[in-house]
Structure formats: structure tokens, C-alpha cells
Amino acid sequence: MNYKECYEWGKEKLEDAGVKDAKLDARLLLESVCHTTTGDLLAHGDADVSKEQEAAYADRLLRRARHIPLQHITGVQEFMGLEFLVNGKVLIPRQDTEILVEEVMRHLTDQSRILDVCTGSGCILFSLLHYSNGCTGVGVDLSPDALAVAEQNRDRLGVEGVELIQSDLFEAVEGKFDFIISNPPYIASGQIKELMEEVRLHEPVMALDGGEDGLVFYRKILEKGPAYLKRGGGMFLEIGYDQGEAVRELMERAGFCEVEVEQDYAGLDRVIHGFWYG
Hints:
Elements: H1 3-16, H2 22-34, H3 40-43, H4 51-65, H5 70-74, E1 76-79, E2 82-85, H6 98-107, E3 113-117, H7 123-130, E4 136-141, H8 144-157, E5 162-166, E6 177-182, H9 197-202, H10 216-224, E7 229-238, H11 244-253, E8 257-263, E9 269-276
Parallel strand pairs: 3-4, 3-6, 4-5, 6-7
Antiparallel strand pairs: 1-2, 7-9, 8-9
Helix pairs in contact: 1-2, 1-4, 2-4, 6-7
């Protein structure tokens, strides 16, 4: 088969399997096998695909047809213009989470010290350090498997000034920080079963489940977090689309000032932040 024929065949396979975004995923999987780019489908659609590449493509299509996430098949996900390694031990970085990074960057100053709670792949913290000057950070996660992925990303991206610690939230954290950031688990336990198969079956439940009302980790972070913030330090949290007012109330009750909720590109609540002057 030539390149275009392979793509058409792959697209049909994924459509038949009920895969959302079958066209996009078929193209991206073919590109990952043939080491090509988006333009090759139009510019070089008649190029031959080797038997070895066809076999590798067929294998990846089969896995995607079983609703294994695309990123777990290719092993990478782009976030903030950087490529992060991912697997089933960490949440796949999402574009919505870039809103959190962008909001922190609006307030970030050189030499800031940042604590990333529930760091996962490290995508939030490493992006902030990559695009800032002289900032340092600590990333904590309860999962040693997640930290192993974060360590790979740190080394692969050449991020300096960062320490990764296994910790149940603040348990093993020392010192004070200019910013505390987190994308904690915030899906209500009863809603986990309603998530897409790709998420429900293939991403770590411990990184999704926010307890009965989805707010368990916000309560814990806002209870303990102020002790680790410098005066005037900022707390920046990703939230669910319907959690803005609830988390705002928790932040204000905890003593945070200038609390604001920011929306994502769809106009839904996505990030909340406030400052500590206690």
C-alpha cells in the first residue's frame, strides 16, 4: 500500500471500532510509524509504505481500536510546546491544563520557588521552569511510578533546579514557596464510571478520584498549604467545570485573598487562584 491507502485503511478500522477522532488518530499513528509529518499525506500520499511499517501500523491500530489511548501507544503527548513521555501511570497532559500554566506565568517572577502537588508527569512544573528565568521547583506525588515518569521527563527535557519527592501531599515537603500549584484528582467518585473508556480503564484512578463530591483534595491542600507559602504567595489550582464557586468558598474560608476563577477556551471554569497574606 502507499501512504494514502494506509491512512484510509486505518481510518476505516478506527471508525468501525467507534473511536472518537478516528481520522486524526489514524493519521497520527501512521506518522508515528513512518516518522512523517502532517503534510506528507497531501504531498507524498503516493509514497510506498514498507511491509514492516504496515505491520507496525496494523499493530497500533489494533491497540487503538481497543480504546487504548493514543498517547499510550505513541508514548508521548505535547504540552505547552514540549513533548512529554506518558504511560498508564500518569494522567495524559491535556490542553485545558495549559490554562493553569498560563495563569501562573502571568504572576511568576524570576527566582520564584514553586511547589507542584500531584505532579504526575511533571508537565506543569517543568513547563513553568522551562519558560521562566532562575525559578526552582519541587514536584511531589504519592505514586512512585508517576515519579519515575516525571524523572524521565526532567532528564529528557534537561530541566534544572527541580527536585522530585514521593509524598502524600505535603507530608515530606519542607520549606516555603512563592507558588503552590496543583492539578489534583477532582472527579467525584460516582462519576468515574461515566468517563470515556480511554480514561476510565487506562488512566490511573488515583489521579482522577476526588472523593464523594470531588473536593476532597482541595480541602486537604487548602488546609495544609498555607504553612508552605511565603507571605504574598500564590495558590493556583485546576478545577472541574462546575467547581468554581465551591472551591472559591473553600479558598476564602481558608484565608486566601484576591481569589479569582479563570475560564478555559470553552468558557468553562478551569483554574482558581488566590494569595496568602496570613
